[in-house]
Amino acid sequence: MTVDIPLVNGTTQCTVTAYSEKSYQATVKFYSQFLSLELETKDANSTTLRNSTVSLKVVLEGNAEKHAESEARFQELTGDLESADWRSLANSSLVFKAANVVQCKEALEGQGPGVQVQAYPTDLFPMELYVVDPVGNVVGVTRTKNAVSTMPTAPPASKGTFTSSVPSSAQSTSALSEIDEKSISAEVSEVTASASGPGEKAIAVMTSGGDAPGMNANVRAIVRTAIAKGCRAYVVMEGYEGLVRGGPEYIKQFSWEDVRGWSSEGGTNIGTARCKEFRERAGRLLGALHLIEAGVDALIVCGGDGSLTGADLFRSEWPSLLQELKETSKITSEQYTRYKHLNICGTVGSIDNDMSTTDATIGAYSSLDRICRAIDYIEATANSHSRAFVVEVMGRNCGWLALMAGIATSADYILIPEKPASSREWEEQMCDIVTKHRSRGKRTTIVIVAEGAIANDLTPISPNDVHKVLSQRLKLDTRVTTLGHVQRGGTAVAFDRILATLQGVEAVNAVLESNPDTPSPLIAINENKITRKSLVESVRQTKSVADAIQAQDFKKAMELRDTEFVEHLNNFMAVNSADHNPPNLPQDQRLKIAIVNVGAPAGGTNSAVYAMATYCMSQGHRPYAIYNGWSGLARHESVRSLDWKSMLGWQSRGGSEIGTNRCTPDEADIGLVAYYFQKYKFDGLIIVGGFEAFVSLHQLERARDNYPAFRIPMVLIPATLSNNVPGTEYSLGTDTALNALMDYCDVIKQSAASTRGRAFVVDVQGGNSGFLATNASLAVGAHVSYVPEEGISLEQLSQDIETLAESFQTAQGRRRFGKLILKSKNASKVFTPEVLADVITAEANGVFNAKSAIPGHVQQGGLPSPIDRTRATRLAVKAVDFIESRQEDIYKARADDDEFDPDDKEISSTAAVLGIRGSDVVFTSIRQLYDFETEIGKRMPKVIHWESTRAIADSLVGRKKVDVKN
Ligand SMILES: Nc1ncnc2c1ncn2[C@@H]1O[C@H](COP(=O)(O)OP(=O)(O)OP(=O)(O)O)[C@@H](O)[C@H]1O
Ligand SMILES: O=P(O)(O)OC[C@H]1O[C@](O)(CO)[C@@H](O)[C@@H]1O
Ligand SMILES: [Mg+2]
């Protein structure tokens, strides 16, 4: 039995049979533009074939016309047919592994070796080979590269493992600051001894307003960076309260050791308060006096909109405060001159995320994490009773938490202060959505109410108001849950620890670089980039949103809000009312869009599929899922149209609901992939995955020449914990993985700290990318991280052991003294975690010992983090928009070869990677990335965007780097 495969792009088809000497018989279908061949197996045996090499005899025969045509064409190209290598295909050796059906299935699902042909067709003479099992399923695939040339192309990356070797010698990447604890202590005592010499600065940090997870990491980074830069570090205890009270009890000098282990601790260890006195000039006057008395030159305030408004006011009043202090003889003229300019800087710490000009505030994502976990829990009980839940979340004047939680948990409805409606309107809209969801089979209803939710007449909307509507009008069994301060509790998520740390370093840099003419900075983050904004301007903009709301000018309030907030809100409305209202687009603009997952599982993958499908529905497009990757498609025609009900709950699930594996189109059979694309008439494709997904997009784009079915807009949403996809600085799944690894490390570190003289060597995933190890080391304060980009040199290893031994010797049983060494698996093949632990223990001479710890696939994470869920939603919507907007650019080329020029920029840019680069979300063409920005052999981008983070991670733990010249 054979499978008919229609012609694609005029490719000639012939059917031939390959059979084993024993029982197994397979049909091999062979495609070539010019040739028709017969293949016949020799020595093949269905039970012994696995992993064995089988010789396939290739006999040229059949279609004489085509044969002649190919010879003529070949002669035209080579001028010498006799020596033509394509003839050597006859009797060529084919690697034909896993030839029985079960094994082929495994192979195609990425669990075993695939079927490969060691013959290399060219782009000019492409060939595909299909092995069909006795019942007609296509189970085998070929590589299709170069039939003519004897020059083999690079062998395909093997499934599952990456073999390219990684240098184990260390290459110094950048000039890292060489600080160790001893030298820093020495510096500190020197500085303290000379008190306030004019050269040295004293930098103080305080936390203010509601506490926020990550504040401790911020304080730690500020204290250590200040010390590392030769400054004295101070903390102001209890927020502005401490400034107003003053004295050494409230304004304390801190040492390197004082902040040990703080990254992993929730709340704020230096205290915070809401201080009435500071709102009055008299309070601020006292604050100014106390700062000067303590000799503080610069103040970094980590707090929310209120705290930074206070800081801004303090800054603007400073000259007059100083004048008054001088006139009342509270300070000397020297002090007046020295402290004439207040050097102040804000790092935004608040769970509310209500400060303009920054995308995220320290603590907001930790709080969102608590909220999403709670709602995930509530879902289960709601589902059991088919109940409705009204969940109140924090956000006095701001709906960010409610909105993001709404997206991350696919809640039915949200009520936020930024977009109020009349009571009648919101009640109608909520009832309409909830009724439709229920009528389509949803058993749960979740409505999230922000603490500050209001109607458009500014009257508050309470959870009880919502309860009343759901229970009385819709007769739903409804409960109210107020999450309260649980949302502010617990330790910070990885994002907040890293954000707080990087912003702390940047804040110290900013105050050291500032002069009387520089405007006071606020340290922000925009997309993936830490930025400096003007404190005055940020406060002004934040206030203008609040003013617009008070003036009931909600349209203006929205315009003044960050564009990302508005984008999230629009996305929430679109995906959550999918299929409800008439689609947005007219019939003739509605498309068929496919989505496929490729590579290892990554957090947020399901959210991307869910968002893509629901957004498609709201636009009027038809979403399709290709189940089980390219191999699923080639083997089982695994295309299903996605329907709303079957995707319920996907938003919050880990793994990949539609299945994923590492097989690329070439490996699966690109001709067959093209055939199905043609059969389903896809107008666009979204691939979600890691490096194999990147390679897949490249293969599809290059195959457009032969297969018009690929002449459609195609987008890759990067998703891999390795974060090694060129074209982006962030891949879905990295945040989930970082949290999983960080949680693991926190536990291990606690064990090490309790044991006192113990270090753990933790084995970290990430292929050839040290991203995960570097960022995790920043989040957990690991003593050392070894990454593939640097390798492990003996010099560095011995230096690290020496530093470790010294610090254990001086630790004298202090708490929080657990030491971690994070080692990327590919940093060294020789130094496995066990070997490394043994070497370290032996070299430590009994001062301490080391053990290995292997988190393994736990690093893929369980539930996806809220960051991965919400980013997935945003990127999926952008990907669909891209497919819509790029139809015109490639539409003509789909039907007409003459219109297709693969090198045309407009056309080639319709196959792109959707990435976050610096502070922008951008589409970059796969051609550009693959040809110019990728180290294919290493499966890495050429430029490592996070390189500078390594120096920061090292310097904050006082690691000495050995400068190895390679
Ligand atoms: N307009 C202002 N002038 C002077 N000080 C202010 C002003 N607004 C706030 N502050 C000071 O900042 C403190 C914290 O402000 P607020 O209570 O608004 O919290 P926040 O910093 O916005 O944090 P969060 O909202 O996350 O809890 C106040 O108690 C007060 O001391
Ligand atoms: O109980 P507290 O400390 O006044 O904090 C409650 C408020 O603080 C915030 O969480 C911000 O930290 C607001 O969303 C909330 O209204
Ligand atoms: Mg606030």
TrEMBL record:
Pathway: Carbohydrate degradation; glycolysis; D-glyceraldehyde 3-phosphate and glycerone phosphate from D-glucose: step 3/4. Residues 203-511, 592-883 form the Phosphofructokinase domain. Residues 163-177 have a biased composition (Low complexity). Its main location: cytoplasm. Substrate binds at S350, I351, D352, R387, M394, G395, R396, E451, R479, H485, V486, Q487, R488. GO terms for cellular component: 6-phosphofructokinase complex; mitochondrial outer membrane. InterPro entries: 6-Pfructokinase_euk, ATP_PFK, Glyas_Bleomycin-R_OHBP_Dase, Phosphofructokinase_CS, Phosphofructokinase_dom, PKF_sf. It is an enzyme of class 2 (transferase). Its cofactor is Mg(2+). Its EC number is 2.7.1.11. Residues 592-966 are annotated as: C-terminal regulatory PFK domain 2. The keyword Nucleotide-binding applies. GO terms for molecular function: 6-phosphofructokinase activity; AMP binding; ATP binding; fructose-6-phosphate binding; identical protein binding; metal ion binding; monosaccharide binding; mRNA binding. Allosterically activated by ADP, AMP, or fructose 2,6-bisphosphate, and allosterically inhibited by ATP or citrate. It is found in: Cytoplasm; Mitochondrion outer membrane. ATP binds at G210, R274, C275, G304, D305, G306, S307. It holds the Pfam family PFK. Beta-D-fructose 2,6-bisphosphate binds at residues 662, 720-724, 758, 765-767, 851, 857-860, 939. Residues 578-591 are annotated as: Interdomain linker. GO terms for biological process: canonical glycolysis; fructose 1,6-bisphosphate metabolic process; fructose 6-phosphate metabolic process; vacuolar acidification; vacuolar proton-transporting V-type ATPase complex assembly. The active site is at D352. Residues 150-177 are annotated as: Disordered. Residues 1-577 are annotated as: N-terminal catalytic PFK domain 1. Belongs to the phosphofructokinase type A (PFKA) family. ATP-dependent PFK group I subfamily. Eukaryotic two domain clade "E" sub-subfamily. Heterooctamer of 4 alpha and 4 beta chains. This is ATP-dependent 6-phosphofructokinase. It comes from Lachancea dasiensis.
